[in-house]
Amino acid sequence: MPCAQPAPTTKIITLAWDCTGTCLNGTLFTVYKQINCTGPLVSAATIPAPTTSVQVSSSLIRNTCWYVTVQTSPSTESYASAGISFPITLTGGFPIRLSWSAPVGGVAVAQYRIYKQIGCTGSYVVVGTSTVQTSGLIPFQQLQVVSVDSEQANFFATFAIDGNVTTFWHTQYTPILVQQPHTLILNLGASYQVNSFRYLPRQDSGVNGTIAGYEFYVSTDGVTWGSAVATGTFTANDLEKIVNFTAKTGQYVRLISLSEVNGGPWTSAAEIGVSGTSVLIGIPLSFIIPPPVSAADCWQVTAVASDNSESAGSTPFQIPSTILGGTTHSIFGSD
Question: Which residue from 13, 142, 132, 97 is spatially nearest to 290, judged by alpha carbons?
Answer without folding.
Answer: 97
